[in-house]
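Incident review: delayed structure delivery

Summary: a single-chain prediction request sat in the queue longer than the usual turnaround. Root cause was a stuck worker, restarted by the on-call engineer. No data loss occurred. The affected request and its eventual output are reproduced below so the record is complete for anyone auditing the incident later.

Affected input:
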Amino acid sequence: MQLTPEFPSQRIATGAALCAPAASWCNATALFELKLSRKSTAMLDHVSLGVTDIERSRHFYDAVLRPLGLVRIVDFGDSRGSDYGAAPGSLGVEFTITREAEVRTPIPGAHVCFRAPDRAAVDAFHAAALACGGRDDGAPGLRPNYHADYYGAFVLDPDGYRIEAVCHAPTSPTIVATG
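Output delivered after worker restart:
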């Protein structure tokens, strides 16, 4: 099945049917079921950050989140903010930016980490961040002090928030000795 370019990482399964992630093909119940299934093991529903320049931040997050399968799905009127997710509409929201008159960063010890489907997506996240006004805060690579397959990259967004992308998948299976 070919995925739509607007939502490259998303297929919604409802019963025996697969439907593409567009409002005309999926109803609110299917989206709600998707959100519940995707987040059944997740603790957080979504994260929101205040930004000082909404257009600059949209440009940044449009570029850095796409390799991770998240796209801008909602823009608030009067350039007040935007929602990002892997499914359309309010039920797909996973990350939000809102325009604020002032933000205070850095916040000591705080960062937002996005899961990446593979190591190439972590690399693409980092490259896009640097190309779109972000600053390097940890190049892509293994961080074995976290665990053997922890592959991550850290950047500072245009407002100074520390943002990470991580892939936990091993490059090969672990071999377990038998009895």
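Verification: Residues 1-32 have pLDDT under 50 and may be disordered.
Action items: add queue-age alerting; document worker restart procedure.
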